[in-house]
Amino acid sequence: MVFHGDYEIEFEVYELPKKEGEWRYKKLGYMSGLSVQEAKNRWIEQNSLTVDQVDDIVVLYPLEKD
User: Fold this and answer.
1) Model pLDDT for residues 17-26, shown as the tens digit of each residue
2) Does residue 23 contact residue 17 with C-beta atoms inside 8 Å?
3) Spatial contact of 13 and 27, defined as CB atoms under 8 Å apart
4) How far apart are the first and last CA of the chain?
5) I need a labelling partner for 8 at 20 to 30 A (CA). Which of 24, 35, 39, 43 fits?
6) pTM of the model
7) Helix or strand or coil: residue 10?
8) Contact partners, residue 32, CB within 8 Å, separation at least 6
9) pLDDT value for 13
10) Could you tell me where the DSSP H helices lie in the chain?
11) Nearest to residue 53, comparing CAs of 23, 5, 15, 27?
12) pLDDT tens digit sequence for 23-65
């Protein structure tokens, strides 16, 4: 039997900058999933985000560590 955990990736979750002219994203944490969208959906569900907050969330593949 194959478990989803065997194929899930731990993605990095960020929040878009709030102020105009600000360019740094705020790192919120990590969420695992089979895809970027699944990880984002899990983050939204676990944190009970509003519709406005959902648009500010960005999920990215993690940088490879040396």
Assistant:
1) 888 888 888 9
2) yes
3) yes
4) 32
5) 24
6) 0.78
7) strand
8) 5, 8, 9, 10, 11, 39, 42
9) 95
10) 36-47, 51-54
11) 15
12) 888 999 999 998 999 999 999 999 998 888 899 999 998 777 6
Sign of CA dihedral 61, 58, 38, 31: positive
User: CA 3 to CA 6: how far, in whole Å?
Assistant: 6
Residues 28-51 as b/e (b if ≥16 CB within 10 A, e otherwise) read eeebebeeeebbbebbbeeeeeee
Radius of gyration of the chain (CA): 13
As given in the structure block, the two tokens for residue 6 are: 């065997």
Q: Which amino acid makes up residue 18? A: K
What is each CA distance from 14 to 5, 7, 10, in whole angstroms? 22, 22, 13
Q: Which of 24, 31, 40 is nearest to 8 (CA)?
A: 31
Pair of tokens at residue 47? 């944190």
